[in-house]
């Protein structure tokens, strides 16, 4: 058996029930409504083996795994992230000033 989850894409915080119904029925009256249907990722979570779950985001179509599948597997406690993953700083700030010029690759220093 599997559960279907709908995940908002990009910067969208939540999905309205009306948008979800339009996504499921695939009935749009304007092109903007059709475009908004691409702001929802549909993920099918496989209960027995989470690695066989499916998502309709472009990354999943390319690699057969994506952050949505892994995130839901962790959230539903199907798998546990390694402790090393929790020590990685998220969104570290860049240093001040202009970035250093790249050194010539083939010159011996």
UniProtKB/TrEMBL annotation:
Residues 38-77 form the SWIM-type domain. PROSITE patterns: ZF_SWIM (PS50966). It comes from the Eukaryota. The keyword Ligase does not apply. Residues 86-109 are annotated as: Disordered. Keywords: Metal-binding, Zinc, Zinc-finger. InterPro entries: Znf_SWIM (IPR007527). GO terms for molecular function: zinc ion binding. It holds the Pfam family SWIM. This is SWIM-type domain-containing protein. It comes from Rotaria socialis.
């Amino acid at each position: 058996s599997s559960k279907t989850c709908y995940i908002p894409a990009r910067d969208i915080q939540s999905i309205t029930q009306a948008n979800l119904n339009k996504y499921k029925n695939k009935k749009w009256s304007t092109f903007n409504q059709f475009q908004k249907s691409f702001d929802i990722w549909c993920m099918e979570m496989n209960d027995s083996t989470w690695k066989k779950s499916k998502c309709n985001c472009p990354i999943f179509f390319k690699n057969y795994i994506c952050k949505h599948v892994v995130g839901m597997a962790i959230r539903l406690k199907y798998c546990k992230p390694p402790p090393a993953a929790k020590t990685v700083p998220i969104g570290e700030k860049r240093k001040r000033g202009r970035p250093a010029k790249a050194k010539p690759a083939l010159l011996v220093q």
